[in-house]
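My current task is to audit a protein record that another person submitted. Alongside the sequence sits a line of tokens, each denoting a local backbone shape. Where you disagree with what is written, explain briefly why. This is what I was given:
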Amino acid sequence: VEMGAKLLCLFLASALIAYYIYTPIPEDVEEPWKVMLITASFRALGHLAEAADRLGMMHYMDALKLLTAAEYVAPTSDENVTVTDTEFSNVAVRLYLPRRASDGLRRAVIYFHGGGWCVGDAGMKSYDHLTRWTSNMLNAVVVSVNYRLAPKYRFPVQFEDVYSVTKFFLQSSVLSQYGVDPDRICVAGDSAGGNLAAAVAQQLLKDSEVKTKLKVQALIYPALQTLDLNLPSYQENEDKPILPKLLMVKFWSEYFTSDSSLREAMASNRHIPVELSHLFQFVNWSNLLPEELKKDRVYTSPTYGSSELAQKYPGFLDTRAAPLLASDAQLRGLPLTYILTCEHDVLRDDGVMYAERLQAAGVPVTHDHAKDAFHGAMMFVSSPAELAVGHRLLKRYIEWLNDNL
């Protein structure tokens, strides 16, 4: 009997490990085993967070934040860059100042980390690597913003934090203090940070108090709209690595509320009331996506929901949360733009449609589409979870900034 029990335990353990480790990985993704292991760890963390939440031990997002804490590195200067944690306009930032002499004024990048507005930190190893490398390679001042997070703080707090840091930094007295050229400043961010960067760039156009104009915005696989969570990219990549559809829906809904009715409505794509149907023109993928991304899908009109959610949580229809909802007129005058999208990403079509709309509004856009990459790939550049594709995307982003900023 004991032997049988041992065999059963062994079988169950193997099945469980296989379930976690074995995830169908898209064929064109390199280093599939590494990607599988990374995906398995994220999935295990998600399941633990779910269990902790259901047992009332801690909020789902607080459990995910344990990863942020495990990845945290203290601000450490090296021979190339001086790194300090400080505050701009009462918001925590990590500041990277190059040590190398500069012929004239330096360039600057204001960076917003990803993490679905709920997790992430400028001090995570992957972000510290990214921003430190940016500072060193471009001989640029980098301000990496630690905005406050949901569920403790809801929209628009995250936006207001990054906006007030940007506005503070763009003052001529602050720029001259750090030796920054007012004509060579960029806002950038990945995922939820790309969302915040796009929103900040739009808001600056309307703000008569800010005299300094951004030279560029760089949006790395950004989340840009809350309207249609059933785009071809959401359908195709529902269970792809790092950011499955249901996790993205959780992030979006938590940005506004813990009320599960918003999350459920978003998951079934029934959160927009009929009286707001005119907004769908801004995210109508039948007009805005190239044929190869439609993959023979036929656009159908959305299923409308009750008006109650939109009245209760108007934030999800605010352009500061969903920059794709800005009208064409509001897009004109945006700075030179870099957009990176990944094929295997629920957010792919957000970035593709924004690139299309910006181009139509006369904004110069470089749209890089990585056919063999998934959401978050650029974060995997520091060991142990190092991916060649992460290095390639990071290198491409830095080269573009170097040429255009």
About this structure: Residues 32-54 form the longest helix (23 residues).
